[in-house]
Amino acid sequence: MNRILSLVSLKICFFLICIGCFQGHVFAQVPAFYAEVQAFKKLDSIHPPVKNAILLIGSSSFTKWVDVQDYFPLFPIVNRGFGGSTLPDVIRYAEEVIFPYAPKQILIYCGENDLASADSVTSRMVFNRFKQLFQIIRTRLPKVSVAFVSMKPSPSRERLWPKMVEGNELIKNYLKKKKNTAFIDVYPKMFDQNGIVMKDIFLKDNLHMNAKGYAIWQKIIAPYLLP
Q: 0.85 exceeded by the pTM?
């Protein structure tokens, strides 16, 4: 009798282990930011965004700009930035966060998280990733204006500033040779007259901006937006 119970217990344990492995496999197949992108789709089904708008894509500096439309009331804005994303993430979800919106202009803020993800990530790698994203956009939307907002000097990532400066310069020089593009340089405007980054334009995490920070961005970005 004890032997039978032991065999039954072993079978139950084996079954539970198999279930656990299966569930782990299923969860492992769900890529990062899948839930965020699905939320965009659900929102679009409820409130379809206007076509021919200005599309914001990239990481949390756009994600947290939840009232961006208020900063640019004369321009239709669709914000599809998802926090924590890298350029490969944006590339992965290009079909979901770019092309369905048929934008007239695309603003990209991304690259900071790429550099922060690992010390092995170089500014040249960020540039190559941006170039890949740009080429994907150009292939599908050849006439759409594309602008890159420079990586910002987040105080919490000061050790990465040299890489950011180099990456910004590489992207800037690349876009100079491309038609219907712009490089929007917010980096230098986030320092005071003494060359010290303005801490009061950031939240307590010294990474994301507050309203004062976005007000600086508004003045710099506005002249580049298409009517």
A: yes
